[in-house]
Amino acid sequence: MAEIVRSNVKGALLALVCFGIYATHDVVVKWLGATYSPVQVLFFSVTLGFPIVTVMLMTDREMDNLRPRHPWWTALRTLCTTLTGVSAFYAFSVLPLTQTYAILFASPLLITILAIPILGETVRFRRWAAVIVGLIGVLIVLRPGQAELSLGHLAAVAAAICGATASVIVRKIGQNERSAVLLLYPMVANFVVMGAALPFYYEPMPGLHLGGFALIAALGFIGSMLIIAAYRTGEAVVVAPMQYSQILWASAYGYFLFDEKPDGATAIGAAVIIASGIYIVVREGRVKVSEYRPVLRTRGRGEVGTAPRSSILERLRFQATGAGR
Fold first, then answer.
1. Counting C-beta atoms within 10 Å of the first and last residue's C-beta, which end of the chain has fewer, N or C?
2. Which parts of the chain sit beneath pLDDT 50?
3. Cβ(91)–Cβ(159) below 8 Å
4. CA angle in degrees (0–180, nearest 5) for 24-144-248
5. Which residues, other chains included, contact 11 with Cβ-Cβ below 8 Å and sequence gap of 6+?
6. Coil vs helix vs strand at 144
7. What is the DSSP letter of 121?
8. In whole angstroms, how large is the CA radius of gyration of the chain?
9. Which 3-state string (H, E, C) describes 174-212?
10. So what's the pLDDT on residue 111?
11. Can you say how many angstroms the Cα of residue 312 is from the centroid of all Cα atoms in its chain?
């Protein structure tokens, strides 16, 4: 029992460090987003992430080609990750950090809903109640009719929806699709699409800002490795709720770096969203309510196609040790 407690504490601490790094990643995105278009930020973040991915793929012992076994699902996921990246980066650049996080925290709730048509899941009354309460929290944050909804708010909502869709698709095809396909297609799509749009948005960059783009790629990779270690060390039901610590990081970063002060509606809405998300995570961890465990295995980050996704990295590392086929 004591060993389980120690493992859970260690897993939770690793997750807290991980999500602190992810929050720092998003701060750099916001900093660069004040000067550059999300197209330019996304393009260079992806481009500078390719060396990291190349090193990871060099350890992949799975012998196969890069043609997807599920082309239509892969295409839909690739589209969703591209839209998630542009939407999330834009939202971070124009909205307060806490407000952006509060909206993005709706992703686990949306995953629960999307698991019904995509995975054939059955969602019972208690989870439906938690989802509805969480979506009410989103409305509290958005305050339709009381506060002006900007393009940034719509972008954050779009990022939550597209990120949730991409995550559920991974749950559907991830066991049969090769890790390299899941890893590379969204990155290549971002590279091609953002590269095609870049001439219309490009602004010259000093060396410091180019280093910021590299930092985004590096922080995304480090965060992925830490969350893998956290899930390997502690129980998912303990590790998963740690993602909500990002709201604390966002509040601190926003206050000290961007002079942002969360308003009462954002704080209340975020609390409602977080409470409903934690309820769903805890319920999935204790009761066999989902064959795919769509919330617990989301790893707490939406898919944006800029850096390796943690669950895919985990499979690549598993194959590299010779435990693959």
1. N
2. 299, 320, 323-325
3. yes
4. 25
5. 230, 231, 232, 233, 234, 235, 238, 239
6. strand
7. -
8. 19
9. CCCCCHHHHHHHHHHHHHHHHHHHHHHCCCCCCHHHHHH
10. 87
11. 13
C-alpha distances (whole Å) from 215 to each of 18, 62, 219, 300 are: 15, 30, 6, 20
User: What is the model's pLDDT at position 296?
Assistant: 55
Nearest to 40 by CA among 184, 213, 291, 161: 213
207, 52 Cβ separation under 8 angstroms: no
Token pair listed for 23? 């929050």
| pLDDT on residue 324 | 42
pLDDT at 213: 94
The number of beta carbons lying within 10 Å of the beta carbon of residue 204 is 5
H-only helix segments in the chain: 2-33, 38-57, 71-94, 97-104, 107-119, 125-142, 151-173, 179-197, 207-233, 236-239, 246-258, 264-286, 310-318
CA distance 135 to 127: 12
Angle at 225 (CA atoms; ends 224, 229), nearest 5 degrees? 115
Tell me the two tokens of residue 319. 């194959």
What is the C-alpha to C-alpha distance for residues 138 and 98, in angstroms, rounded to an integer? 12
The Cα 119–Cα 165 span in angstroms is: 11
DSSP code for 35: T
Q: Which residue has the tokens 């550059």?
A: 36
Convert the pLDDT of each residue in 218-253 to its tens digit: 998 888 888 878 888 888 778 888 889 999 999 999
Nearest in space to 192 (alpha carbons), one of 50, 17, 298: 50
CB 322 within 8 A of CB 103: no
Give the integer Cα–Cα distance in Å for 42 and 153.
19
Q: CA quadruple 21, 22, 27, 29: dihedral positive or negative?
A: positive
Q: Which amino acid is at 138?
A: V
Domain borders along the chain are 2-323
Question: H helices of 95-124, where?
Answer: 97-104, 107-119
What letter represents residue 158's amino acid?
A
pLDDT in the model for residue 200:
95
